[in-house]
Amino acid sequence: MIAPLEGRYASTALPDRLDGVIVLGGALDPVVSVARGQVAANDAIERVTALVWLGRRYPRARLVFSGGSGSLRTQELKEAPIARQFLDQLGFDTARVVFEDQSRNTRENALYTKEMMAPRPGEVWVLVTSARHMPRAMGSFAAVDWPVTAYPVDYLTTGAPAGWEFDLASAFSTIGNGLHEWLGLLYYRWRGWSTALFPGP
Description:
By secondary structure, the chain is of the alpha/beta class. Helix content is 40%, strand content 12%. It has 7 helices and 5 strands; from the N terminus they run αβααβαβαβαβα. The protein has helices at 3-7, 30-36, 46-57, 79-89, 106-117, 134-143, 168-191; strands at residues 20-24, 62-66, 97-100, 125-130, 149-153. It has a 5-stranded parallel β-sheet, sandwiched between helices. Strand 4, helix 6 (134-143) and strand 5 (149-153) form a beta-alpha-beta unit. The longest helix is centred in the last third of the chain and has 24 residues, at 168-191. The chain is globular. 38% of the residues are buried.
């Protein structure tokens, strides 16, 4: 269920010149972070650590973290401020990062980030998100007419055929992640928020 999603956009060599890096939220939990008084991350933290690495590799690139709140009950608690706190703790210069905090879903990540960053024709931008989420994310950015290059992270599978080992707890989590993305792809296409049912390169 997960492997076709993660294999849709292969990791490619990064270009010599990069004008901007977009990192989508989903790696930090603002509700738990505020309640506990410290940054709470989940298993998608590679999204944020990729921002640090890419920011250092491309010191002139514009950087943006796009993450508001996907919660219906706690809209006032946004992910972007928690990302700023986490990057500060890592010693990364957050003055370089634009924090978009109003988006509630992937479609709004694309809409609001494009509005804030006003990319120019010919610029090279990289989009960072979990590999399983990349097809829906790329479809959303294509739908707002922003051509970006996929930089998938946070893999759950090796890409090799599964063996006979079976871990029930891990299987339930993986099935949930897969269903979320496949249903998300269907919904985004139905709403016209993506350019294809299963966007690909």
